[in-house]
Description:
Layout: H1 10-57, H2 60-67, H3 71-85, E1 89-93, H4 117-120, E2 125-131, E3 134-144, E4 150-159, H5 160-199, H6 205-221, E5 225-229, E6 235-238, H7 240-246, H8 257-260, H9 265-271, E7 279-283, E8 286-294, E9 300-306, H10 308-346, H11 350-374, H12 378-394, E10 396-400, H13 413-431, E11 436-445, E12 448-455, H14 487-498, E13 501-506, E14 512-518
Parallel strand pairs: 10-11
Antiparallel strand pairs: 1-4, 2-3, 3-4, 5-6, 5-9, 7-8, 8-9, 11-12, 12-14, 13-14
Amino acid sequence: MRRPHWPRRVFAQLLLSQTVVTVGVTAVTAGLFLAPVSRELDRDAMQRALSIAQATAADDALARAAAARDSRTAQQGAEQIRLATGASFVVITDTDGIRLSHTDPSRIGLRVSTDPLPALRGESVTAIQDGTLGRTARGKVPLRLADGRIVGEVSVGISDGSIRRRLLSMANGILLCAGAGLAAGLAATLLLARRLKRRTHNIAVADIAALLVEREAMLHGIREGMVALDGAGRIRLANDEALRLLALPEDCAGRTVDALLPPGRLADVLTGRITGTDLPAVRDDRVLVVNRTTTADGGAVTTLRDRTELESLVRELDNTRSLTEALRAQDHEHANRMHTLLGLLELGRHEQAAAFISEQSGSHSALTARISEQVQDPHVGALLAGKAAVAAERGVELAVTADSHLPDAAVDARALVTVVGNLVDNALDAVGAGPGAVDVRLRPVGATLLVEVADSGPGVPEELRTLVLEEGWTSKDAPAHRPRGLGLALVGRVVERSGGRLAVDTGPRGGARFTVELPEALHPVETA
C-alpha cells in the first residue's frame, strides 16, 4: 500500500497545515469551553438536589413518619415532593439507613446503596454518585424532629440525563460559534494560500531549497563582487568577492554603506548618489568598475569588477605604444640624420660631419646620464627615462631639476612608480602636443620623499583643485579602452595610505604643480 505524499507545492502545504491547525485549535477551544460548563452544571444540579432535600427535611410530618418508621406516610410525602420538583428520586430513611420511600416501591425496606452515615451524623452532603438509579447529582441532609433529634436522612437525586440534556442544549450554541470561527479561519487560510501561490509562482518546497542552494553557490562562486541593498541603504547580502574588493567585515549585513565605507565616490556610487554605467571607483589601491541596478522594492543590486590588473596592463600598453611611436620617430629621424651625414661626407666637409655626429649623439645620452645620476632607484629612473623619450616625441621637454636626488632606498618602489608615473602622465596630457615643458623634482628629507611635478599647461583653476583629485573626474574625453579620472585618485590613495599630503597650486612655468609628501617612503639615508 502506497503511503500518502505530503503536498509539494508551498501553497498546498500551507493550506493543509493551516487547515489542520485551525480545526485542532477550534476543537480544543470548544472542548476547553465545554469542560467548565459541564462542571458548573454538575454543581448546579447538586445544589438544587441539596435545596430540595433541605425543604423536604423541614416537613415535621415526614420526620414523625421516619421516627415511627411509617413507610406509607413517608412514601406519599416523598413522591409528592419528587413530582412537584422534578427530581429523579426523593428517598427517606430511618436511622439504620433503611428506605422508607423510593420511586420503586419494591426497594422500600432495603438499605440504601450509598453511605447514609454522614447525613445521620448531622452533615449536609452533595456528590455525584452511582446508585440503583444510575449516575445522579445528590444532596443528603439529616431528618430531625422538632426537638432536634435525628431520626433519619433525606436523599434527593437529579439524574445525569437531565444534566446532559442541559449541557447539549448549551453545546449547540457553543458548537455553532466554533463552526463559524472554523469557517472564518478556513476562508482566511484559503485566501492566504492563494496569495502565497501567486507570490511563489506555484513552485515546490524542494525547488525553493534548490534555488537557495544554487543562489548561494552562484553568489559565492562568481568572480565579480555583488552587494544587495534595501530601500534604506542597508546591506542585505554581499558575496565573498565583494567583501574582498570593498574590505568589508563579514558581519556587514544590516549596516549602511556610509557606515562601512569612507566618504567618497565609491560610497556615492553604491548608494546611488552618483548614477551611470561602468562607473570607475577606487578602493585602497584597487580600481573597480561599478554598476548599480534598482529593484522593485526600492533597494538595489550593485556589481563590482576588479580592473586593477587590467588598468595596470592598459597603462603599460599605453607606455609601450608611446615608446614604440617614439622609437619609430627616432628611426625616421635617424634616417634623416644619416642622409645629412652622408651628404656632408660626399661634399668633403669632414669637420662639419664630425661636429654633427657629436651634437646628435650627446644630447640624448646626456639626458639619460643625468637621470641615472640623480635618480638612483632603478624603477623610477627607468620610468623617467621612458617618459622623457615619450615627451621628446610629443615635442615636450621633460627635465629632472638640478636639485633632485632619489637614492636607491625606496621602501615601496611600486608606490613611487604609481605616484611619479601618474603625475608625469597628467602633466604630459595637460601640456598636449607641445611645445611645452614638464619639470620633475625629487627630494628626500630623512625618510620622507617630496615629489613635485610642474608643467607649462593651462593650470588648474582654484575652484577645481579639490575636484581634480576625486576619482572619476576628468576634463578630457575618455579613450575607448579605459576610463579616465583614475590616475590622480590612485596617487591620492597612496598618499592617504602613507599618511602624507597632496597639494595642487600654480608652478613656476604657469601651469599646474602637484606636490606630494610621502612619509616613511625611504629607508633612512644621510643627505648632504
